[in-house]
């Protein structure tokens, strides 16, 4: 049972027959990462943070991370280019791309060709995060 706008989640999150316990937040905006980590913790998902493509490659653990929030623009690369790498590491991994540049999103094939990649536009609210997770698990 999910109570909207109160962040109370009674049932575990199940995506692709996996219980979602831990997320990786990948964004070069450190404040945004901390806010998202707090929001996820409120709904029962532990999160770790990386701030670059290099850190993402080094710290993504398919045994630990069930969900990835992924920015597009990093100083050391493009987050979209990391999606095939992440998908090879963990079958069924759900990725939520987060970006302020939503006008060019439809140009990325990854959104048309992959049902487990979602988009969340910045800036986003606590309710937006809850809604995207609810969409992913339904």
Features:
138 residues, alpha/beta, Rossmann fold, two-stranded antiparallel ribbon, 5 helices, 29% strand, disordered N terminus
In brief:
By secondary structure, this protein is of the alpha/beta class.
Question: How does this model look, in words?
Answer:
The chain is built from 5 helices and 11 strands; from the N terminus they run βββββαβαβββαβαβα. The protein is an alpha/beta fold. It has a single domain, classed as Response regulator (Rossmann fold), CATH 3.40.50. The strands form 4 sheets. The protein has a 5-stranded parallel beta sheet. The N terminus is likely disordered.
Q: How would you name the CATH homologous superfamily?
A: Response regulator
**SS element count, helices:** 5
Major sheet: 5 strands, parallel
Tell me the count of domains: 1
Second CATH tier, the architecture: 3-Layer(aba) Sandwich
Order of helices and strands: EEEEEHEHEEEHEHEH
The portion of residues assigned to helices is: 25-40%
Secondary-structure topology with pairs:
Blueprint: E1 2-3, E2 8-9, E3 13-15, E4 18-20, E5 22-26, H1 30-42, E6 46-50, H2 53-59, E7 67-71, E8 73-74, E9 77-78, H3 83-89, E10 94-99, H4 109-113, E11 117-121, H5 126-137
Parallel strand pairs: 5-6, 5-7, 7-10, 10-11
Antiparallel strand pairs: 1-2, 3-4, 8-9
